[in-house]
From TrEMBL, chains A, B:
Belongs to the class-I pyridoxal-phosphate-dependent aminotransferase family. Alanine aminotransferase subfamily. Homodimer. This is Alanine aminotransferase 1. InterPro entries: ALAT1/2-like, Aminotransferase_I/II_large, PyrdxlP-dep_Trfase, PyrdxlP-dep_Trfase_major, PyrdxlP-dep_Trfase_small. SUPFAM superfamilies: PLP-dependent transferases. It comes from Pyxicephalus adspersus. The keyword Oxidoreductase does not apply. Its main location: cytoplasm. Its EC number is 2.6.1.2. It is found in: Cytoplasm. Residues 88-470 form the Aminotransferase class I/classII large domain. Gene3D superfamilies: 1.10.287.1970, Aspartate Aminotransferase, domain 1 (3.90.1150.10), Type I PLP-dependent aspartate aminotransferase-like (Major domain) (3.40.640.10). The keyword Transport does not apply. It comes from the Eukaryota.
Length: 482, 482
């Protein structure tokens, strides 16, 4: 046989895939991984180890899992433990109840009935309670494994790859990079609405309408994304802002895609999370009967922070059953882990007053939220004290997203390297301090502004020292490049 | 606002998705689900409950999980249990080892290093041992959650949706329906090679070459799928047949996609599973250095049958690193559950002689395989004794796929209903007996032949009575419609 080029190569592979970026893995993280290898090889650096501030993985940073949740999961995994006395009574009771609803009492079965019926009924109750009684239909709830894939599956329904006019996905700037990846993957077009940093990342009504109007010249906008609480911004949308978004969705006939995975991570005094569904229904039937809404929830965030287990749910509102069925089909390739979804059950139906685990379950939540508040205050203080750094109040989620000044000379230098200026800054910081941030470019930012995202997950004292190092480095950077 | 049509409806949604079928959920299962509801409502049927023979979910049918695997999983989920004495010593030791390799010792972290480095190294050793020393590079191994999604991600790399000439996926007939779904989802074209039922589902070399040659007139064949052991057929490919497939892949420059998820479920005396990788390497460098191979493994099948946990791996051979990187990206939206993947570690690195759990771990495997053999023999016997039913020897996997005679009058009747004749048969059987099978049409079958797939998962005595009921029903059916 004559030697031939292998069939599958970069030129012959699916070209749509080539445009997709790894979530949260820009050049900074790629370099951090290289540095880790260099350290492992014994190469001397100005720091002993990397300081990872680039992800939202709470448990990797020392956050303890919720005891009741893990007890129930262990009992369901190895039911022989039900006969031992190493568990809270209510954990055993709950495990018995769950096992009873599983096919042949086993987490090792696919368990379609548990995943598509038993659990959605519990989730619907949870949603109704959260939303002050707004009804939730279990039929409209889909339990999934990791939510990144579920988000892609939901957005896939709206993408129209065959139409000559591309599908427009309207996203806030800054946005969580997954939405950019979805746009690339489905050959869609990104339509941006820039959040107003000066007004605490508020939605600018004129700006969002103008964006969509302009986009209609070259694409077909179909989906309007909102992320609340915001990632990377850490703001919580005001009720007014939510009404603006809903009105725009209604008037422009867009599917409202509400990324609400940080809904439990709201800690600023006086700030309350409203779900888009609740606000939608409170705006009356003109909206609640018409606007198509998709909302997502994840066990990876919230109080439990179970990133490694992989579960969450999507609620669909006003999405035709016929379309919705196809989501079920896409999702059917992506059956969630039963051990993961049963921990979702624990979270939507937690221990009640009087139950053995009630007090500790509540205390775990209170502790986490008060610690998150302390860390947010600390970050705001340290950043806002520094000349050339400016950080909005952080009300929720797990991050700070401060704006940083970058001197003209650094901007030119970065441009010479073909790098965005904030990426340039993050690389310099990484090489000198070992601190791994995510550059603002990965999330999008208003033209001429520069940011980074830092996860506020390290223990308080450690976080303080990290923040101070960043601020100190930035001061030196300002001086050196001015 | 004037009432407007909601944006997302069947006409506006992604049209590619409309062509996708639910895996293994044809009209027969859909009707079975309705019947279940009718029974729940108190409607009287000729049977008390459904007899589910349509899926490969071993644990749902009473198969016990592997003790060592579940012990390790429970210990890692709730490490406080390490201080109790409810576990085998080696389970504790293994759990401690695994926890040490996890980020912050937690299954609740994303654990990228464990998933992409630690575990692939163990899997590579397992593969080398399985293949008699053929080298395996951990860099070419990707650990995934459920393998359906992983298969779609791998096939997505090859699909070229932008080319006017559609991508051809060459699949055996019968094939596992997931491959048909992938073809629909990626707008590809199905190219069939019909297995020779008369020769125990052997590959017909002339037939496969001719199929591909003919397909080149209207599409661009890029992937050649082989399923070994066969689903739904239960045959194990002979070494000769594997060589044919490899030669065709080499000569026709196709990516060889080897679905080997039933590799441990081989029980017929004298029948041995060879991996495609092993055969490829034994055919010499002319093949082993050129043929691009993708092989998949799943914890849902094999001895453990852990369908509910969701894990497995893919090994890539000769796939350019550049392309392979993009698989990693697609996969990155689909992070597996850490509890699931650590059970994969247990399976590829099982207890060794001298370990406390060694004997019982081995015994569990032996028991399962000998039971599977008994069930296979029983199915062959009962089917082949029946006039108008014919069943090939079942050597592996979990199913029988007998050919059934359907009288002309039944064929016309079915056609009048717009139903394939085998679907017609399965519906009649379901309505009268409550037995849920999957029709041959769902898998594809040679023109003019009719089949069904039955899972051989019920306990032996129960299975015997099910098989007898089917045979009896078919005899009556032959009589009634002849």
């Amino acid at each position: 046989m004559a030697p031939r080029k292998r069939l599958l190569n970069l030129e012959t592979m699916n070209q749509a895939v080539l445009d997709v970026k790894v979530p949260i893995l820009g050049s900074v993280l790629a370099r951090a991984l290289e540095i880790q290898q260099e350290i492992d090889q014994g190469i001397v650096k100005p720091f002993k180890k990397l300081t990872k501030c680039h992800f939202g993985d709470q448990q990797a940073m020392g956050h303890k899992p919720r005891t009741f949740l893990r007890q129930v999961a262990a009992l369901c995994t190895y039911p022989e433990l039900l006969d031992t006395d190493n568990f809270a009574e209510d954990a055993k009771r709950r495990a018995r109840e769950i096992l009873k609803t599983l096919d042949n009492n086993s987490v090792g079965s696919y368990n379609p009935t548990y995943i598509t019926q038993v659990l959605p009924r519990k989730i619907a109750k949870f949603i109704e309670q959260r939303d002050g009684g707004v009804p939730s239909d279990p039929k409209n709830i889909v339990v999934s494994g990791g939510m990144s894939k579920a988000v892609l599956n939901a957005l896939a329904l709206a993408a129209d790859e065959e139409s000559p006019l591309k599908t427009g996905f309207v996203v806030p700037v800054p946005y969580y990079p997954l939405y950019g990846d979805a746009i690339a993957l489905f050959g869609a077009t990104k339509v941006e609405y820039v959040l107003d940093e000066e007004r605490g990342w508020a939605v600018n009504e004129e700006n969002i309408r103008e964006s969509i109007r302009a986009a209609r010249q070259h694409c077909n906008p179909k989906v309007l994304c909102a992320i609340n609480p915001g990632n990377p911004t850490g703001h919580v949308l005001s009720r007014d802002n939510m009404e603006v978004i809903i009105r725009v969705a209604a008037e422009e006939n867009l599917l409202l895609f509400a990324d609400e995975v940080y809904q439990e991570n709201v800690f600023a005094p006086g700030v309350v999370f409203h779900s888009f569904k609740k606000v939608l229904f409170e705006m009356g039937p003109e909206y609640s009967e018409r606007v198509q809404l998709v909302s997502i929830y994840s066990i990876s965030k919230g109080i439990s922070g179970e990133c490694g287990l992989r579960s969450g749910y999507i609620e669909f509102v006003n999405v035709d059953q016929a379309v919705f069925n196809y989501f079920g089909i896409l999702k059917s390739f992506d059956i969630p882990s039963v051990i993961a979804v049963l921990t979702l059950e624990v979270l939507v139906d937690p221990p009640q007053p009087g139950d053995t685990s009630y007090e500790s379950f509540q205390a775990e939540a209170q502790n986490l939220l008060s610690t998150q508040l302390e860390k947010a205050r600390l970050a705001e203080e340290i950043f806002n004290r520094a000349p050339g750094i400016c950080c909005n109040p952080i009300q929720g989620a797990l991050y700070a997203f401060p704006r940083i000044q970058i001197p003209e000379r650094a901007i030119s230098l970065a441009q010479g390297r073909g790098q965005a200026p904030d990426i340039f800054f993050c690389h310099l910081l990484l090489e000198e301090t070992g601190i791994v941030l995510v550059d603002g470019t990965s999330f999008g930012q208003a033209k001429g502004t520069y940011h980074f995202r830092i996860s506020l997950l390290h223990p308080l004292e450690e976080l303080k020292s990290i923040l101070e190092k960043i601020v100190e480095f930035h001061a030196k950077f300002l001086q050196e490049y001015s």
